Amino acid sequence: MTVIRNWHVRCAHLYMAGILAVFMLWPVQAFGDIVKILTEGDSALKKKEYALAEKIFSQALETHSDNFRVLKALADSKIGLKKYQEASDLIDKILAMPVTNGKQVLVTLEGETEPLKAELVDETVILKEAGKNNMRNYLSPASSEPVAHYRFFFFKTGKLELVPQHRAKFKYIGVPRQDRVYVQEMQSDVKIQLIQSEGPGAPSEMVSIEAGCFKMGSDRGAMDEQPVH
User: Fold this and answer.
1) What's the average model confidence in pLDDT over 113-122?
2) Please, are residues 56 and 69 in contact by the beta-carbon 8 Å criterion?
3) Which is nearest to 70 in space by CA: 108, 42, 49?
4) Quick one: average pLDDT of 52-61?
5) Disulfide-capable partner of 167 in 39, 61, 110, 111 (CB 3.0 to 4.6 Å)?
6) How far apart are CA 172 and CA 100, in angstroms?
7) Which range is least confidently modeled, 58-62, 125-129, 173-177?
8) Can you tell me the distance from the alpha carbon of 5 to that of 140, in angstroms, rounded to the nearest whole number?
């Protein structure tokens, strides 16, 4: 009986240790991972390792399907691999997103459920993590090693705050206007490549249009399609 009782106690201890390990590791895994992924992918793009970049950003897209940064970087990777149609499909998704002034995001802080609307001012600020960071007091002990932070401007408080990356995650509300202009230029280049890839002997499709007045162009398309006229 003593052996069985000791075995049950040992199992209970192992179970509790496993639960504690999950809770201790969860914040690091759930928060701040996207920055590391983007950094690795951007590094591969810079080295023109397009296949590696495509793999990294494709995996990121599985959990960040509405992140325009991931979509744009994956489109760049596809262009480097001359997968122009796949790049065009990604670009269309970005151009369908709303346009924002600045990098407007919804921020979810560790331990909180309601996201806060903010502007992402700096994606990476390196400094030591203190016990108190601006107005927020985190429960875990401060680290003596340099820690990567986000710098957010929170609209509700009207204040800038530095938040450790592993204690926050954010979601873009839309596409910053400047980035959208860049994506529109990408779209124009991809369209040219798609036309050239078909060659001069490619069949052309004719479309019947009824007589009358109509408008041409698009306010949400490529730069050479604007304005509607």
Assistant:
1) 95
2) no
3) 42
4) 96
5) 110
6) 10
7) 125-129
8) 35
Alpha carbon distance 62, 52 (integer Å): 16
Which of 15-19, 78-82, 114-118, 121-125 shows the lowest mean pLDDT across its residues?
Answer: 15-19
Q: Return the structure tokens found at 215.
A: 């408008």
For strand 175-176 and strand 116-128, is the pairing parallel, antiparallel, or unpaired? unpaired
What is the DSSP annotation of 96-152? TSPEESS-EEEEEETT--S-EEEEEEEEEEEEEPPSEETTEE-SSPPPSSEEEEEEE
Token pair for 161: 């705050």
| Least-confidence region, from 43-57, 69-83, 91-105, 118-132 | 118-132
Q: Is the pLDDT of residue 202 over 50?
A: yes
Compute the mean pLDDT over every residue in the chain, rounded to the nearest whole number. 80
Q: How far apart are the first and last CA of the chain?
A: 88
Paired sense of beta strands 146-154 and 159-164, if any: antiparallel
> For the domain bounded by 33-98+182-197, which CATH number is listed?
1.25.40.10
Number of H helices, E strands in the chain: 6, 9
Side chain identity, residue 84: Y
**Residue 118 CB neighbour total at 10 angstroms:** 25
